[in-house]
Each structure stands twice: as structure tokens, then as C-alpha cells.
Amino acid sequence: MVQPHAAPAADPVLADDPEFEAPWTAQPERREATVSSALHGQRLDKAVVTIAGEFSRNHLQGLIEAGHVSVNGVIAGSASRKVLAGQVIAVDLVPTAESRAFRPEALPIAIVFEDEHLLIVDKAAGMVVHPAAGNWSGTLLNALLAHHRAAASLPRAGIVHRLDKDTSGLMVVAKTLPALTALSRAIAAREVHREYLAIAQGEVRSAEFSIDAPIGRDPQSRVRMAIVGLGKAARTDVVAVARADGFSALRCKLHTGRTHQIRVHLASRGHPLVADAVYGGRAALGMTRQALHATRLGFAHPLTGVAMAFDAAAPADLASAWRNVVDGSA
Fold it and tell me: What is the pTM of this model?
């Protein structure tokens, strides 16, 4: 066993800060302990586990390698080094990447509409909606935390639905808990109208058609979704606006909101989205990201019940590609 030392008092400067309780401003906790005879000759990471057992060993090993652990006041850079009885180990419990992700960042976001209950955002292609592995910062959630203080008290900062990183377009975000609850229920009840512009490879045969096929995780790849028998029900209505030169300009209406739904459904018909490499699409028409844009959003206001509808023009890359297909079909 290691004998814990008393934790130091909170920094008085930070304690006077009104944001002191916020996880993105708090200083890492320091813990110190003396190595007991029972741990004499053991690995450092094993000793550190006895000091901070609520953290995974992998995380604690990372703290050691990053220089956040010292032995007798000297930074210990190796998790495998042996400790000796009587040595004092100090650990700065720097938060995990996940916990540090939920902090405000002053990022530019295009707000189409805002009142005290909700806001409508025209998300740029390339912006991740919610922090995840590989994208712990620079997300829409980070921007929302900076935009209004109440976001910190809401699950997912008020985000009720998502767009893929490389999909642009409209999203509704709640600013209050009643709005969050009402919007979530409306989405679950399929009462939110969502329409997308898409450019697919190949010229679709039908002017209008629906794809009704269940979607679930691809059993062959964790980064893909697929049509699977035990997946969740999913339906997409498709209207062909133009077809030319081996491409189709499409308007897609979602009846459900499954992950990658439009991308999976169209790919299953042999028409992957242009530049959607995950589902077999190739770069073309100047597009280097999947050719998909959430162009229309409609719903009843969660508090007043008033019908609301919003439209967002396609960004420059998709607008140019769209014109190429439409003009080519003239």
C-alpha cells in the first residue's frame, strides 16, 4: 500500500473565479503518496493505480509518459520503472481527453434563427457535431458552449440530431430543457421535416422512388453502416432533379434519421454519393467531400407550436457541382 498525503488547498485565485466549478477551467488534482514496503520493487504504474484507482491503468500510464507523475520530486518518464519503499509519488490527475472535450470554444457558426428556446444552425462541411475519438475539440458542441451559458447545463449542449462531419446544412439545437425534450420527441415521432440535396454517381432510372430498408452497423467494418436484417427501420424518399453525364442531382426526404441513412440507401442501389469514399463514391465535379447538404428543415416550435420552416442554399462546392449536372441535363 501507499500512504496518501493530505490534498493541497484549492488555489485561492481560482476559487474567486466564478467559473471555478467548470471542468474546463479547474486545475488538475494533485495526489501524493509514500511507497509502502508491500510495493517495494514494483512497477511505477502499479503503484500509481493504488493512488488513483478510479482511472484506467492505460490512462495513468499515459499520465506517466506525459510527465504528470514524479518520484521524489523528479519527473518519472517511464511506467515500467521500479519504485522503492519510502519514495514519494506525486500524480497530477490531468483530465481525460473526453472530459476536456466539453469546454467552450469561440468558433464561427452560421446562425439562421435564434430565440430564447432554440437556434437553427447552418453547419459548415468539415465541422464535427459532437466530440469523439480523433475530434475532441473544434466541434459544434464546443461552439455552443461558448455561444450561450445555458448550453453547459443541457445534455449534449442541446444537440438533438446530428449531421456527419462532411455533410453541410441545417440543424436545430435546443437552448432549454423543455425545448430539448419537445424537439427530441418530435424527431422520434417523425414530425420534423428534413430534406437534403445530394449528387450521386450514375443516372438513376426513376424520377421518384423510395428506399425502405433497415440500417445497422456493418458487421464487416465498425466505421460503416449497412442494410442489415436486424437493423433499425429506415425510409428515404428520392426525387431526381436532373441526370447527366453519369451523375444524378437528387432531393432526398428523410422519414427516419439513421446514421449515414442517405449515404447507405443510395449506395445500396448502386448510386453512392459523389466523393463518399466510405461507401464507394469517387471524387468528381470538384467535390472532395461527400455531396450531401441538409437544405430544408421544418417543425412546430417546441414551446409555441407555431409552424417553422427554414431553407439553406448549398455551399459553393456543392452548388457548383449541382449546376454542372443540371446544366448538363438541359
Answer: 0.73
